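Study this one:
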Amino acid sequence: MGNFANNQREQQKREERESTAREVLGKTFHNLGKTSFAVMVVGNMSPLFGLSEMSVWQTLSLITLGVGLSAWLIYLGNKIIKKK
């Protein structure tokens, strides 16, 4: 009976470690998504201050790329956290 109880405790510890690792990885992807969005916003403000010259199409393509990357990273983070 003692061996069974030890196996149960080991399995619970392993599940807890996996759950914690999955949660940390998911939060990391969330933070990457937020960071990429912030960088996209700051980068697209540079033409407003005259730091660079970009056409409208370049600006729109960069905004689309930034929003798409942010959404993909946040989606990936959610998928990792909710996986079980």
Notes: The chain has one domain: 2-82. The chain has a mean pLDDT of 85.
